[in-house]
Amino acid sequence: MFPALLRLFARLPLRWLHGAGVAVGWLAYWFSPAYAAHMKENLRASGVCRDEGDCRRLLREVIAETGKGVTELIAVWFGTDDRISDFVACSTWHVAEEAEREGRGILFLTPHLGCFEISALYAAQRLPITVMYRPPKLAWLEPLMIAGRQRWRARVAPANLRGVRMLYKALRNGEAVGLLPDQTPGVGEGVWARFFGRPAYTMTLVARLQQATGAAVIMVFAERLPRGRGYRLHLERMPTAGLDEGALNRAIEALVRRCPAQYLWGYNRYKVPAGVEPPIAAARDR
């Protein structure tokens, strides 16, 4: 019953869903002090604001864009195939086509920026892709998440050892994989590297996958267009020489600076995962 209701809502104009998302964004900001505090602290400490007035303006935009990112999932996960295709404009897909011809697989990296969910679906319409996911805290959401993400030629891989093996296998078969490179990993799966000037526990999986397979690395950003006009997908190939966690974070920073209002600043990127030693003041600047 619930999926059928979501498919019904998915027929609504995207601008309506985004309008509802603005309200959702403000409600989350008002009723979750911890979330609001992370958002303000991360935004102000990032250095993307010119001054305090600019920071207040940008904060309002971030609140609205974050809410849109929630409600647009209805259209992205439960919309019809032709509607998903109509949502996205992309003039840089040739970057992926060139990498695919090399035959060593593709690592698509989609930070928490813009509509990162639609990036993998756009790719899945064109090539086989295995996307890693972390099960949500609310168990009832997981089957909806899998149903929404596992479409066309997309498969999902859980964020555990079995999922990592699935990623290696896909790359060795010359296929694509998708990762959220700014998601905080678990103990033993990351190192401390600077992100917008502060130590952030950063996944080592990207570098390990690339070094083991020789895969191409492509940063992807689905820019949310105003007034529900859809998304513009940007693809940029990353150099793999010297690829480490510091280089990865700098690449994400550069992408975020292009559209800071659409980054998920409320995500607790600087948390210390359970069992991980916190960074020391004189930590190595990677």
Strand content: 15-25%
Q: Tell me the count of domains.
A: 1
Determine Rg (CA atoms, Å). 18 Å
Low-confidence stretches: 281-286
Distance N to C terminus: 50 Å
Q: Strands across the major sheet, in which order?
A: 1-9-8-2-5-3-4
Can you write the helix and strand succession as a string?
A: HHHHHEHEHEHEHEEEHEEH
- The total count of helices amounts to 11
* Shape estimate: globular
Q: Can you count the beta strands?
A: 9
Provide the structure class.
Answer: alpha/beta
In round numbers, the mean pLDDT is: 92
**Relative helix content:** 40-55%
Largest sheet: 7 strands, mixed
Topology readout:
Blueprint lengths: L1 H8 L4 H18 L1 H14 L5 H27 L2 H7 E3 L3 H9 L3 E4 L6 H9 L4 E5 L8 H8 L4 E5 L2 H12 L3 E4 L10 E6 L2 E6 L1 H9 L2 E9 L6 E8 L6 H14 L28
Parallel strand pairs: 1-9, 2-5, 2-8, 3-4, 3-5
Antiparallel strand pairs: 6-7, 8-9
Helix pairs in contact: 2-4
Description:
The chain has helices spanning 2-9, 14-31, 33-46, 52-78, 81-87, 94-102, 116-124, 142-149, 161-172, 205-213, 245-258; strands spanning 88-90, 106-109, 129-133, 154-158, 176-179, 190-195, 198-203, 216-224, 231-238. With 286 residues, the protein is α/β, with parallel strands linked by helices. It has one domain. The strands form two sheets. It has a seven-stranded mixed β-sheet with strand order 1-9-8-2-5-3-4, sandwiched between helices. It is globular, with a radius of gyration of 18 Å.
Summarize the structure.
By secondary structure, this protein is an alpha/beta fold. The chain has 11 helices and 9 strands.
What labels would you give this structure?
seven-stranded mixed sheet, alpha/beta, 286 residues, two-stranded antiparallel sheet, 9 strands, globular, disordered C terminus
